[in-house]
């Protein structure tokens, strides 16, 4: 995996083989950030990366100068790797929280410009994610929730859904606050 743009553009990050993760592919990540580039100025944004895994998405946001990124994962090996990598890359704007994502969503008092969630594709609670985020008002006005998921999941009937993109085997569903 590599960082596409920003202060650490081109940096390759090698995750340990013992992490049970499925990082977002570089092609899908680049496509996603092209969409975000057309809609956001990254400086000053508050970001939440759920099921952060290797930290792949968090590093991209940090490299682009987001004000604060919170990476959440319940796997100790993943959170340790993200912390170590953030230190190596001198990302002072990246904070790591080891907790179950669903517990974090229930108890956090923060709100975010962008929330990215990349749950395991076989997670049976994936449809709860948008509900928890919108019920707990975790997105600020004009904020986006982006969920990476398998092709078997369809969010198009959700009232806050506004877009679906496919890049190879990667599916992104986009949500926002609707008036």
Give a written overview of the molecule.
- It is built from five helices and seven strands; from the N terminus they run H-E-H-E-H-E-H-E-H-E-E-E.
- By secondary structure, it is an alpha/beta fold.
- The protein has a single domain, classed as Rossmann fold (3-Layer(aba) Sandwich), CATH 3.40.50.150.
- It has a seven-stranded mixed β-sheet with strand order 3-2-1-4-5-7-6, with helices on both faces.
- The longest helix is centred in the middle third of the chain and has 13 residues, at 76-88.
Quick summary:
The chain has 179 residues and is an alpha/beta fold. The chain has helices at 26-37, 56-63, 76-88, 101-107, 128-135; strands at residues 46-50, 68-73, 94-98, 112-117, 139-149, 161-167, 170-176.
Low-confidence spans: pLDDT under 50, at least 5 residues?
none
CATH homologous superfamily (4th level) name: Vaccinia Virus protein VP39
Shape: globular
Percent of residues in helical segments?
25-40%
Summarize model confidence as the mean pLDDT. Answer: 93
CATH level-3 fold name: Rossmann fold
CATH class: Alpha Beta
CATH architecture: 3-Layer(aba) Sandwich
Strand order of the largest sheet: 3-2-1-4-5-7-6
What is the radius of gyration? 15 Å
């Amino acid at each position: 995996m590599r960082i596409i743009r920003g202060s650490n553009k081109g940096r390759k990050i090698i995750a340990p083989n013992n992490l049970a993760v499925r990082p977002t592919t570089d092609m899908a990540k680049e496509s996603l950030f092209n969409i975000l580039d057309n809609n956001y100025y990254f400086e000053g944004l508050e970001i939440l990366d759920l099921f952060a895994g290797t930290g792949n998405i968090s590093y991209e946001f940090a490299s682009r100068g987001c004000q604060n990124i919170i990476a959440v994962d319940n796997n100790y090996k993943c959170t340790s790797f993200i912390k170590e990598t953030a230190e190596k890359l001198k990302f002072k704007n990246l904070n790591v929280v080891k907790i179950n994502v669903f517990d974090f969503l229930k108890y956090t008092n923060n709100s975010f410009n962008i929330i990215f969630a990349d749950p395991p594709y076989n997670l049976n609670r994936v449809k709860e994610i948008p509900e928890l985020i919108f019920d707990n008002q975790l997105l600020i006005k004009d904020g986006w929730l982006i969920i990476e998921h398998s092709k078997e999941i369809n969010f198009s009937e959700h009232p806050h859904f506004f877009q679906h993109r496919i890049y190879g085997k990667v599916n992104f569903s986009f949500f926002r606050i609707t008036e």
